[in-house]
Structure formats: C-alpha cells, structure tokens
C-alpha cells in the first residue's frame, strides 16, 4: 500500500504546477516568526538556510538569498519610500466635461412660393420710403390686392428639428413688379430686444453653416390650417402682426395674445 505523506511536514505535489507546494506546520500560524523563517537569524544566514531547504523550489527564495546585504537595505528603503509616497499623495481623479464645437447646419432643399395673410385676412405690403423698406399688414380690397407681396420660403433640413411639424425656412419677399427680389426677413437684436429687419441677399441662400447666418432662419410650425414663424436666433420670439390695420410686421415674445402670430399660407 502506498504511503500517504504527512501534510504538516512533507511537501505535497500539486497537479496545477510543476513545483512542489509546501504546507506549513500548524504552529506557524501562531508563531511570531512564520515558518520556514527561523527566529533571530540575519539575512545572509537566512539565505544559507533557504539554500539548504531542498523541498522548497521557489524562484523568489533563491533570488533573495543571492542579493547582497547592502543592496537589500537599499531596496528596502526604496520600497518604504514608494509606499510612503502612495500613502501621502493619493491619486486624484477629475471629472472633465468635454464640449464639442457645434456647427449650425441648415441644409437647403428647395424653395416654395406662397401667398400670406394673417388670421384677420390682412395681407403683407412692402412700403418704401427714402431708401428704406418696411413690411406692413394691411387690409386690401379690389385693385389694391395686387400690392400684396408673396413670400418665397427657402426650405431647409436640420438634425435639430422634427420634419413633421417644424420646418426651418428663410423668408424672401417677392414683389410682382420688382426687377430683383432680394429682401429677406431676419431677426436681430437692437437695443437689447429682438427686432425684425429686411436685408438684401442674393438668394436663394444655400446651406447655412455659421451662427451669424442663423438670423435668417425661422422655424415654421404648422397647426391646422395656419403656421407660425419663430426666430431660430432668438427662441420664443415670433413673427407677428397687430390686430389693428396698417401696422408694421414685427417680432413679439407672446403668441396670439395682443398680436397675431398665426398665418394662412397658400402655395402657388
């Protein structure tokens, strides 16, 4: 019958490695100098002792026994310094928020021509005086109806808006008898408040890729048979007409209260 080795005094072969694994005697768990390190022995003596232990095939033990005593002290000092540095100077982690440069992209798709009236059926009329042009909302009847301007909407596509209800548009004023129709509506700040201006531009304006061009963009939102126009550059400000006749078209930040912000558009 094969002899069973004593697990407390003899090395035990391990199937998971080629080296001998050694089980320490039970008393070593309670000894101040854990086995196999003898008590009261210097490092060189320990080195010799380790070499005499044939049963322990440990690369680490053999390496340690060959390190000169002076080198060992130096390594110990380095280890203590390294440990102290880790304890005194913990690594700090900073949460950084990354920002990406945003490009205002409005991709031109096509243009459509519309007639326009507000909810009280006032038409848009362009009045010119001493080189200045102003858009007015006026009740027109009979032959005067020909004074009404039309709106050419340059339609854009943008990843920031829903294509179902909201369409980014640039609004170009079209006069029936004009040689050149190059006036566009834009919303800019004047004395701290957004105002409507007319600006000469060679249209149609193609893709808009800068924030400065955003003054020409209005978000056309359809609701039933009417549409509203909100400034892209100044959210919350809408194209409007007064409930009184013969008043300028302007920008307001209240929808449908004192002013009219919903318009009938009929495509031509």
Automatic annotation (TrEMBL):
SUPFAM superfamilies: Cytokine (SSF50353). Pfam families: IL1. One of its GO terms (molecular function) is cytokine activity. This is Interleukin-1. PROSITE patterns: INTERLEUKIN_1 (PS00253). It comes from the Eukaryota. Belongs to the IL-1 family. GO terms for biological process: cellular response to lipopolysaccharide; cytokine-mediated signaling pathway; fever generation; immune response; positive regulation of cell division; positive regulation of gene expression. One of its GO terms (cellular component) is extracellular space. Its main location: cytoplasm.
